[in-house]
Amino acid sequence: MTTEATGSTYLRTTRAAYDTVAADYAELLAAELQAKPLDRAMLAVFAELVLASGAGPVADLGCGPGRVTAHLHASGVTVFGVDLSPEMVAVARRTYPELRFEEGSMTGLELPDDAVAGVVAWYSTVHTPPELLPQVFAEFHRVLAPGGHLLLAFKAGDERRHLERAYGHELSLDVYWMPPDRVAELLQGAGLAVEARLVREPDESERPRQGRQAYLLCRKVPPG
Questions:
Q1: What stretch of H or E contains 192?
Q2: Report field, pTM of the whole predicted structure over 0.85
Q3: What is the chain's pLDDT, residue by residue, as a tens digit (224 residues)?
């Protein structure tokens, strides 16, 4: 299967899965950040850096039902969300009508070059086949303004799991655990310098299904 065909297939299956679970996903994870202080800390550092730059808005890519978008907005960040799933976007718009949410794919964003001061990809690359991550990271680099920041959250490990049921629904979805060093290498290759990383153990709500969780804070290196 070609890379193009792989990309088309994973986008279709990911969209279908999240369209199916959107309402239940939103309800189950609505308060998740309240119990995760280290996650909130990474978001707080990211927000502080973006606000200090004064350079423009943040794109929450793969925003799902908008909970991270809303969290950043409450921190004072100008932020909008983009998601592949029309049903997720619909839930986000109903839940946070004061915020902007759009349909779109991380593999080809409808944003100009250098358009945003920050990008958040909060577990939204975990369904991307590893061979397609360079394309996604290149899009992050393209839309970020020089000096802009990226916060990437993902599952730390080295495996692929296929889900046939999640959030109370039958579905078909691959989830990739990636080694943090490998992800950092791919980001560096896309021109995104890793400035900080956090790898934490699973908390009580994540055991035993989940493993370690990883967070990389990056900066688009200005030219020259």
A1: strand 192-200
A2: yes
A3: 444 444 578 899 999 999 999 999 999 889 889 999 999 999 999 999 999 987 689 999 999 999 999 999 999 999 999 999 999 999 999 999 999 999 999 999 999 999 999 999 999 999 999 999 999 999 999 999 999 999 999 999 999 998 888 777 788 889 999 999 999 999 999 999 999 999 999 887 775 677 899 999 999 988 76
Alpha-carbon separation of residue 194 from 6, 133, 216, 220 (angstroms): 28, 16, 7, 9
Which run of H or E residues covers position 145?
Answer: strand 144-155
CATH topology of domain 3-220: Rossmann fold (3.40.50)
CA distances from 51 to 97, 170, 180, 197 (A): 23, 41, 27, 20
Query: What element of type H or E holds 103?
Result: strand 100-103
For strand 144-155 and strand 116-122, is the pairing parallel, antiparallel, or unpaired? Answer: parallel
Place of tokens 């889900």: 163
